[in-house]
Amino acid sequence: MQVPDGIALDGVGKTFAGRGKVVEALRDVTLSCPSGSFTAIIGPSGCGKSTVMRIALGLESADAGQVRIAGAPPLAAARDGVTGVAFQDAALLPWRTVRRNVEVPLEVLRQPLRANAAKVQAMIELVGLKGYENALPGELSGGMRQRVAIARALVTHPKVLFMDEPFGALDQILRRQMNLELQRIWAETGSTAFLVTHGIDEAVFLADRVVVMHANPGRIVEVIDIPFARPRAPELFSDPAFHAVCDHIAKVLHGG
Amino acid sequence: MTLRLTRRGFLGTAAAAAANPLLPRSALAATPLTMQAAWINDAEFAGYFLAMDEGYYAAEGLDLGYLSGGPDVIPESTIIAGRADLALTTPDTTIKAIAEQGAPFKIIGAQYQKNPIGIVSLVSNPIAEPRDLIGKTLAVPPVNVISVNAMLKLNGIDPSQVNIVPYAYDPTPLIKGEIDASLDFTTNVPYTIGQQGVEATSFLLYDFGFTIYNDTVVVTEEVLAEKRDLLIAWLRASRKGWEENFKDPAAWPPKWADSHFKGTGRTIDNEVFFNTAQQPLIESPSGIFAMTGEDIEKNLSALGEVGIVGSHDMFDTSLLDAL
Amino acid sequence: MAAEASRWSGLRNAAILLLLWEIVGRLDLVAGGALPGLTEILHRLWIDRADYPLHIWATLYASGLGFVIGNLVGIAAGVIFALFPAALRVFRGVNIAVFALPPIAIAPILVLTLSGMAPRVTLAAMGVYFVTMTATVIGITQADSRARDLIRAYGGGRWDVLRLVQLRGAVPAILAGLRVAAPNAVLGAILAEFGGGGRWGLGTYLLGSLGRGEPDRLWGIGLVATVIAGLSYAGFALLSRRMLGASRAVTLNAAVPEAAPAKLSPVPRLLLGLAAIAMPFLLWWGFIRLTGVPDLISKTPWGVIDYLFLGRSAESAQARLLAALAETLPITFVGMLAGLGFAFLLAISSRLFPRAIAAFMPVALITQTMPLVALTPLLVLILGRGTTLTLWVTISVTFFPAFVTLAQGLALVPRSAEELPRAYGASRWTEIRMVTIPASLPYLFAATRLTVPRALLGVMIAEWLATGKGLGNLLNQSRGFLDYGMIWSVAAVSVALSVLFYQIVVVIERRVLRRVGMSSAE
Question: How far apart are CA C194 and CA C46, in angstroms?
Answer without folding.
Answer: 23
